[in-house]
Amino acid sequence: MYRKYVKRIIDFTLSFIAMIVLWPFFLIIAILIKLDSKGPVFFKQKRVGKNKKHFYILKFRTMITDAPKDMPTHMLSNPEMFITRVGRFLRKSSLDELPQIINILKGEMSIIGPRPALWNQYDLIEERDKYGANDVMPGLTGWAQVNGRDELPIAEKAKLDGEYVKNMSLLFDLKIFFMTIKSVLKAEGVKEGLNNVSEQTSNTNKGVSS
Fold first, then answer.
1. Per the structure, how many domains does the chain have?
2. Could you read off the pLDDT of 50-88 as tens digits, one per residue?
3. Which part of the chain is the Bacterial sugar transferase domain (predicted)?
4. Which terminus has fewer CB within 10 Å in the chain: N or C?
5. Does 203 have pLDDT greater than 50?
6. Looking at residue 55, what DSSP letter applies?
7. How far apart are CA 36 and CA 83, in angstroms?
8. CB 156 within 8 A of CB 164
9. Nearest to 208 by CA among 81, 33, 71, 83
């Protein structure tokens, strides 16, 4: 009941309320982005959704327009050269993720769920298949994100995603939600660049999605 109906109702209701409450912040952030650098306000990137159907995730643009498009930022050798001044603040505060409220409203994402992999993160997608983690709606935040985020090796990340799928419930979602708030306030698990990632020997298309 919760997985099939209640979770979607909660997602839509909360994201709709969030859009109404947060639209002034959207406007302010959009103005700051435009004043800081040339390019669009939003950044779109192809990700893997429920049942491995592709969709375009939305974020506030935090990089210059000629930055690599289909590579996790923490896998870049020198991401700082691409990140804008406003983008640095947005990424540290996780405010760059706010436009994903639109993805949630559209039914492409959930508030809580496995973070959507990049379309070319084949090893992560394959590993998640073992746990059924590609068969549920991806989330704005998830069990893996509050247990390491960019620091996690792919196998461990997929395993945690599988634990979420197995134990999905309202109480578990609430636990992850409040743990996410704590992690965001402390900026835990956010890594920028290959020098900060344990999986430095991975192929650049096989990084852990942030």
1. 1
2. 999 999 999 999 998 877 776 666 666 677 788 999 999
3. 7-186
4. N
5. no
6. E
7. 11
8. no
9. 71
What is the amino acid identity at position 104?
A: I
For residue 90, give both structure tokens: 């947005």
Q: Are 92 and 49 spatial neighbours (Cβ–Cβ below 8 Å)?
A: no
**Any idea what DSSP says for residue 66?**
T
* Dihedral angle, C-alpha 131, 136, 141, 143, nearest 10 °: -30
Q: Which residue has the tokens 């578990």?
A: 172
Structural domain harbouring 35: 2-206
How far is the C-alpha of 35 from the C-alpha of 22, rounded, in Å? Answer: 20
> Cα–Cα distance between 22 and 93 in angstroms, integer?
15
Tokens of 43: 């950044």
Alpha-carbon span 158 to 165, nearest angstrom: 11
